[in-house]
Q: What sequence folds into this?
């Protein structure tokens, strides 16, 4: 019955999930600062409601919901940011820590994936959610989650394959 | 398939950007704030429940008072009805009341009063009936009759008024 309330050392718990959560939030919000705002709100809400930490799908669903609200709340600002990001591509904050150019190319390829494939990929690879959990968080079937994942991998393979 | 596994491996090597150390501090503050908000909310639960009980008790008492008031008013009305029935039992109204009591014996309405107001009397002269040789004075009375009934249980009252005309033949004795 471990939950975030009884888990006094929430920091170790959060540090495990934080990078994946931030990456997940970055699917909708452009800046790292906004993503941190979203994650903070979702995590505190999750903690307040006394949910079990094992119920990760709820946490990701909360992040997604808050991120979408964030976009709706501040759509004008988001549009401005999107334009600014497009104009100054070099200024965009990286979502990953790169070790080499191959990884940089892979990260860029991820950006070009359709949103619904990208979010499944992020949840599966960097958050280690099962397809059942992904389906629960996104409100889709497990088969749909699995097929989106496979499509995402195939698209990345096609992009990165040497011509 | 192997290609996809290879891509998966490559993806797992990618490390997402780490959160800023400030985020931990911000979350800690938010959690402390939420604890501070949550704890006082839990403590006054008992008093708020007590207040709710007092409120229910107050409403209950008010409802009871209103019921008692209604009952008192109803009883008062019934007594007034009886008084009206008694005071209106005048000699000329008594037969009408008896008739009313008979006619309303099946329902729950009780006769409460009856009045008969004679507003015009006309002497239409002497006449002779065919069966007897004694002269008769023909008198015509124009009246206005009012009947009242009251239901003791509900306090409802019924009042009927109508005009009536009556012709009376009074034997005239010669002296």
A:
């Amino acid at each position: 019955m471990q939950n975030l309330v009884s888990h006094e050392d929430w920091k170790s718990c959060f540090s495990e999930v934080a990078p994946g959560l931030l990456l997940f939030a970055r699917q909708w919000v452009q800046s790292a600062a906004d993503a941190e705002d979203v994650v903070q709100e979702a995590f505190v809400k999750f903690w307040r409601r006394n949910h079990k930490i094992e119920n990760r799908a709820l946490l990701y669903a909360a992040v997604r919901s808050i991120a979408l609200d964030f976009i709706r709340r501040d759509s004008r600002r988001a549009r401005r940011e999107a334009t600014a990001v497009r104009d100054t591509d070099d200024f965009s904050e990286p979502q990953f820590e790169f070790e080499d150019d191959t990884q940089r190319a892979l990260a860029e390829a991820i950006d070009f994936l359709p949103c619904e494939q990208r979010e499944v990929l992020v949840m599966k690879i960097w958050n280690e959610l099962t397809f059942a959990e992904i389906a629960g968080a996104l409100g889709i079937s497990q088969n749909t989650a699995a097929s989106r994942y496979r499509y995402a991998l195939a698209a990345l393979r096609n992009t990165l394959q040497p011509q | 398939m192997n290609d996809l596994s290879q891509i998966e491996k490559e993806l797992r090597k990618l490390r997402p950007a780490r959160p800023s150390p400030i985020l931990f501090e911000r979350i800690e503050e938010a959690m402390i704030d939420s604890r501070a908000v949550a704890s006082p909310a839990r403590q006054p639960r008992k008093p708020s429940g007590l207040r709710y009980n007092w409120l229910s008790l107050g409403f209950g008492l008010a409802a009871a008072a209103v019921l008692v008031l209604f009952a008192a008013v109803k009883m008062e009305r019934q007594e007034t009805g009886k008084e009206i029935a008694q005071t209106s039992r005048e000699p000329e109204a008594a037969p009408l009341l008896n008739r009313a009591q008979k006619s309303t014996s099946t329902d729950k309405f009780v006769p409460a009063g009856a009045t008969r107001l004679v507003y015009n009397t006309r002497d239409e002269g002497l006449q002779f009936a065919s069966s007897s040789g004694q002269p008769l004075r023909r008198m015509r009375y124009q009246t206005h009759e009012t009947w009242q009934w009251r239901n003791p249980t509900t306090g409802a009252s019924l009042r009927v008024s109508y005009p009536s005309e009556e012709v009376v033949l009074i034997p005239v004795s010669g002296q």
Summary: Residues 88-171 of chain B form one domain.
